[in-house]
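Render this sequence as a predicted structure.
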Amino acid sequence: MTEPAPPSTSSRPKNAVVILLDSLNRHMLGSYGGTEFATPNLDAFAKGALKFEKHYTGSLPCMPARHDILCGALDFLWRPWGSIELWERNIVAYLEKAGVTSMLISDHPHLFETGGENYHTDFTGWEYLRGHEGDPWKTRPDPSWTGAPSFGRPWLPYDNSRGYFRDEWDFPGPRTMTAAAEWLDSNAGYHDRFFLFVDEFDPHEPFDTPDPYATMYDETWQGAHLIWPPYAVAARQRGILDERQARQVRAQYGGKLTMIDRWFGKVTEALERNNLWEDTAVIVCTDHGHYLGEKDIWGKPGVPVYEPLGHIPLMVRWPGVAAGTANALTTSVDIFATLCDLFGVTPGHVTHGKSLVPLVYGQATQVREWALSGIWGREVNLVDADCKYTRAPAEENFPLSMWSNRWSTMPTRGQGGNILMPPPDDRAWLDRMPGSRIPVIRQPFQPGDLLPYWGYGKFTGNHLYRPEQDPTEEENLAGQKREAELADKLRQALQAVEAPDDQFARLGLV
């Protein structure tokens, strides 16, 4: 059978819009079968889109996932969290050379602090909507509003910001979506080609919303709403949350999901009134999910990457392509590769993605046989068409090293300010990253060293599941005959991305 010829460049979309909603739980969206919370605008978008059924995380959590999307390279095997390194570029740097205008609109605080501070710099323009989560926006609460909530726990920067949000449209998420819609109204038809990246931090915690959302899914709750979920394993079993509190936390996530869904609709309305569906590819994605009691796990603690966190939504609306379902395995770095393909640019650094364009046009049924996923210092996960294999450290969690020329990790605020990692010491040496001749600092760690947050925590051994047959991952098949096959496949996948020798030794794959 003769393969159809690829569509010409002229028949492809002129523009692209990527809308990333942080911590967007696939299983809670109506378009993916969720019934617990209302998501009418996301569901309406899905009806006109190609909906991907086997889309998985790559690098985790927040900033590593954005590195996957904007740089196209997995980094969790080398470092925990960081900005763009010297040997790589944001995709928009390549788009600028191709004459594509790029715009970032975001309320994501990690993009503008240590470890994420240079992702925005190559965009043609960018706008930051202030006040979400840990954003150090205000130095004092609004003294004029007595209605500001009291949270009853140690102070966080959000406490200062929160009093400035009085009505729904004052919150960072609605302001971000409004800014995105306004940018489309002002710029549609003006630029020859454009790429808009909307990095929206909702429905990430704090799950703080005004009414009607705050009470929409839990009308009988009394007292301050529980907007900060614990990051804990066995939280109900250990008494961190009782059943009533657990229901309230989950309901607050649902309220924020429904609120941001409403404002997502403002962006789709702008796409409609500017006739952008005709020449613009629109991608809706997330960085990861969020545990809300599944397996009695809450937040994103140190556990294997189970389905609620790692199996994520991806919906692509492409001009001239009918809505439908794609069952091919995909992962976050594939979004970068797709944008490169769409705009006809070739990255100058090593990347790990596969373009989804052949899937969109029905020219292929798969683009990859496996996907790697994980958090630095934790288990390494391999997903294929049938199985998900999670490999834990063989013994203690060493050898463990970090490769970076921009020495940072996720800032953690204490009473004395950000708690930072110690700088590299006299054990460090200069190494090379795959495909690069630029020397990079390689810092080995030993037991007793202060590690990035993710290097701590218990491990529960290897895990092997078949998610389609066992969606709640109750039957761990590790130790059976199939594990040896998956372990060898993981070894080959790590070799394919030129993973550090530390990883093979740590995981017992030498």
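Summary. Residues 1-5 have pLDDT under 50 and may be disordered. The radius of gyration is 22 Å.
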